[in-house]
């Protein structure tokens, strides 16, 4: 079982952990492999991506929920100090998060379960968004910062080349007839029209990027009514 942590945890600052040295430190966003969760309060796991990382104790979701409910509880000064490890069951039940009305008003997410997927050969990153949201900026940043990993399949278009534009650089310039034949033969991943000209991304352009071991970056703007 793998989970993504939704909070930072430092066992050295936790007064509830049975042994601070046995605790597992992690940060928000870390993926943790849960090895054992038989104990209701303390799970055992290790942080993924840390080759030398050993397994350790981490608080269970129930314990984190109890912490949140206890922090939100405004108790009288003379109220007894209780924890889920108290000897008196009456005291324990009174403050356990699952029995607390305060917890019903809290939105506590300690861990998000995730699935480890096997690596696959063909990879494509699709940037989708309306005009002006920054798709081109993200695409250009990826291509500039890591050109060995990312590549952009130049679209095909029926638009005449402008001054200084080279065929195959930013666009592949084709005739309307050639574009129509390709569309009819299902050779395009996506296509559309803009100001009377056709634009589209051919599947073989994306496949060539995959064959080079790179990630194809697609910059797509959702359309309503056929515009590009």
TrEMBL record:
Record keywords, A-Z: Membrane, SH3 domain
Top-level taxonomy: Eukaryota, Metazoa, Chordata, Craniata, Vertebrata
Major site of localization recorded for this protein: other
SUPFAM superfamilies tied to this protein: P-loop containing nucleoside triphosphate hydrolases, SH3-domain
InterPro entries reported for this sequence: GK/Ca_channel_bsu, Guanylate_kin-like_dom, Guanylate_kinase_CS, MAGUK, MPP1_SH3, P-loop_NTPase, SH3-like_dom_sf, SH3_domain
Domain of life: Eukaryota
Biological role stated in the UniProt entry: Essential regulator of neutrophil polarity. Regulates neutrophil polarization by regulating AKT1 phosphorylation through a mechanism that is independent of PIK3CG activity.
The SH3 domain, residue ranges: 1-68
Domain called Guanylate kinase-like: residue spans: 122-228
Pfam family, one: Guanylate_kin
Cellular component terms per the entry's GO annotation: membrane; stereocilium
Compartment(s) where it occurs, according to its Swiss-Prot or TrEMBL record: Cell projection, Stereocilium; Membrane
Organism: Rattus norvegicus
Similarity comment: family membership: Belongs to the MAGUK family.
Record protein name field: p55 protein, isoform CRA_a
